[in-house]
Specification:
Length: 203
């Protein structure tokens, strides 16, 4: 779980620095590919990381990304009535929120669009980030550039369905097809552990 710096005290680049550092840390601890999974605003963050890397002419920090009901179209964030920012006890737009729009045109399929292989999840019942405005647009950009992807689009529930709704088996199957989970597990190591087991004394 990534704990990263947030608005209103920090800008998008600070958030992306934290995500990129976490990906590098995971890569240094474990063999195999590295992916990030993000919901809603977290999906926007992860998608923005690929765009920033391309803009800086750097390799993609992630081998894959999983974007679940991501906020792709941020035009509403400019509106005092619809922005949804809770800024230190008040509903108002933080000054640093403008940084969230840095990659907006490219997120919507502009010339700077870039992404690692992507699992995209959108629900036809989502009224907060409707597919037509968010995931459909991102999927079209992936397809146009022949970026490997799977688009899981169904009635998974209203925004915030998290791991419920039935999308996870398709996502896991796709990740396996991309080489995730294919490395043999070390004896005595849980698959989610980042540490090798401590030596065991013989009885």
């Amino acid at each position: 779980v990534l704990r990263y710096r947030l608005l209103p005290d920090y800008c998008l680049d600070d958030c992306l620095d934290d995500l990129e550092a976490a990906a590098a840390r995971i890569r240094s601890l474990r063999p195999g590919p590295v992916a990030a999974l993000g919901f809603s605003a977290g999906g926007h963050l992860i998608a923005s990381l690929g765009l920033r890397a391309a803009k800086r002419k750097q390799p993609q920090p992630l081998d894959a990304q999983v974007l679940v009901y991501p906020g792709i179209d941020g035009r509403d964030w400019h509106s005092p009535e619809y922005n949804g920012f809770f800024n230190k006890g008040k509903w108002r737009i933080p000054k640093r929120a403008q940084s969230l729009h840095e990659y907006q045109d490219d997120l919507l399929g502009g010339p700077g669009f870039a992404a690692p292989p992507t699992c995209l999840v959108g629900s036809t019942e989502d009224t907060c980030t409707p597919n037509e405005q968010h995931t459909d647009v991102f999927h079209a950009a992936l397809e146009e550039r022949d970026i490997p992807n799977v688009y899981l689009r169904d009635a998974f529930g209203e925004h915030g369905f998290e791991l419920k709704g039935g999308w996870t088996p398709g996502c896991v199957k796709w990740l396996h097809s991309r080489g995730f989970g294919s490395h043999p597990q070390l004896p005595g190591v849980h698959k989610m552990s980042l540490r090798r087991p401590a030596p065991r004394a013989s009885l």
